[in-house]
Amino acid sequence: MANRDTALVLGANGGIGGEAARQLRDAGWHVRALARGAGQAVEHKDGMTWLRGDAMHRHDVAAAAKGCAVIVHAVNPPGYRRWPELVLPMLANTIAAATAEAATIVLPGTLYNYGPDAFPVLNEDSPQHPATRKGAIRVEMEARLANASREGARVLIVRAGDFFGPSARNNWFSQGLVTPGERVRTVRYPGRKGVGHQWAYLPDVARTMVELLARRDTLAPFATFHMAGQWDPDGTRMSDAIRRVMERHTGSTPRVSAFPWWMLMLASPFVQTVREIREMRYLWRTPVRMDNTRLTALLGHEPHTPLDDAVAATLKGLGCIGGAE
């Protein structure tokens, strides 16, 4: 029988998985974190139980999930590589474990599911006609989760914009706008001037998940919520926040330049990760905003950190301030 206060986090070494694990722990949950790598099979640290295993191995996931009421599925192939081979099998293992335990699966959702026919404002009922291969995979993931919700599991999807945060390094903020470990002298912005963009601060996303899980017994078996996050209405708000934070901490103000998409075009025939990044360029060419009406109707608010505070914490976590050279 599932323990109502025990959660398993897959991908706990990553950005959103790590945040979810820490905030579940701080909210009083017993957290198990499944992580790959050498070392002892079970380790207790940071107030969590770390288990060695592989999300691609069904037995590992099932054993780690034994007795859990919640499974946070925050695991993805690194660098966008091998999505067709790995993403759906990993999800299948989570679904099998959640169905056996009658647990709630929590999935961090993305904008990849949507194509231009759903823009510019997305709500939970917007049509999902993806424009990319990764988008098609995300749609299939959610279709399989919907089916799982009819077979004993429960599902909670929290969809947000582009992630950024102190512990997140596989995202546009840390791989495009700035360089981890270096003082920011130039902000490389990928979007078109005047085009709005949707951002999401990872601690806010994780806090939203935790607050929704506290109400999970009142939710539908398959529940989806959108976050408004940090909306940049014209593509300057995020860059300006980085410039303000750097000036405050270092006394120098970075300049803003266009992201070198031409370099990705040259490299894409040879590097799969670059090809996958280029595929998502359409989300920088048109404004895409998320409607959080359903979320605020339930919670009464959306967890929201002021932008400058979020950017300062992110830059500190990335080593761009506070000892960066």
From TrEMBL:
Ranges of residues in domain NAD(P)-binding:
11-107
Q: Which Pfam families match?
A: NAD_binding_10
One term under GO cellular component: cytoplasm
Check the record and name the InterPro entries matching this protein: NAD(P)-bd_dom, NAD(P)-bd_dom_sf, NAD(P)-dependent_oxidoreduct
Where in the sequence is the signal peptide annotated? none
Under Gene Ontology molecular function, one entry of this record is: aldehyde dehydrogenase (NAD+) activity
User: What is the superkingdom listed in this entry's lineage?
Assistant: Bacteria
Segments traversing the membrane: none
Q: Which PANTHER family match?
A: NAD(P)-BINDING DOMAIN-CONTAINING PROTEIN-RELATED, PROTEIN YEEZ
Q: What is this protein called?
A: Membrane protein
Q: What is the lineage of its organism?
A: Bacteria, Pseudomonadati, Pseudomonadota, Betaproteobacteria, Burkholderiales
